[in-house]
């Protein structure tokens, strides 16, 4: 949902530069945007829920780390099975997130070109405010990518390729 709200802000910024943003005042458009933010995470969420197995997670801990079995609390983040559903979950997430970022980057490029073209027709204050807004949107889009998406994707790939079973790795558990 967060990615879509930022994307809608970018779209609003772009549309407000090329024509009037009155389209965003239309109740049907507003409802469609709101509905899309509800529907957007459903594919990934469905694959995630299907892939959680609390009993398998508990059995894994008892078998491999019996000294931790008394303090182990099975939650959805540590009971995901590595199987084809997890691969589908990861691919779904990569496609969804990549699509949002590709559209966003494309619009950022178009916004930049539009601002360059309009620099003589906008006041210095308006141009400065629009550039600050675009910079804020870029930061809002980049921070989650750097601190959430990339690390979690790396961790998930390391689990999928079996790094946890590599000799000398993850023995601190």
UniProtKB/TrEMBL annotation:
<dbReference type="InterPro" id="IPR019422">
    <property type="entry name" value="7TM_GPCR_serpentine_rcpt_Srh"/>
</dbReference>
<keyword id="KW-0812">Transmembrane</keyword>
<keyword id="KW-0472">Membrane</keyword>
<protein>
    <submittedName>
        <fullName>Uncharacterized protein</fullName>
    </submittedName>
</protein>
<feature type="transmembrane region" description="Helical">
    <location>
        <begin position="29"/>
        <end position="50"/>
    </location>
</feature>
<keyword id="KW-1133">Transmembrane helix</keyword>
<feature type="transmembrane region" description="Helical">
    <location>
        <begin position="137"/>
        <end position="164"/>
    </location>
</feature>
<feature type="transmembrane region" description="Helical">
    <location>
        <begin position="86"/>
        <end position="109"/>
    </location>
</feature>
<dbReference type="Pfam" id="PF10318">
    <property type="entry name" value="7TM_GPCR_Srh"/>
</dbReference>
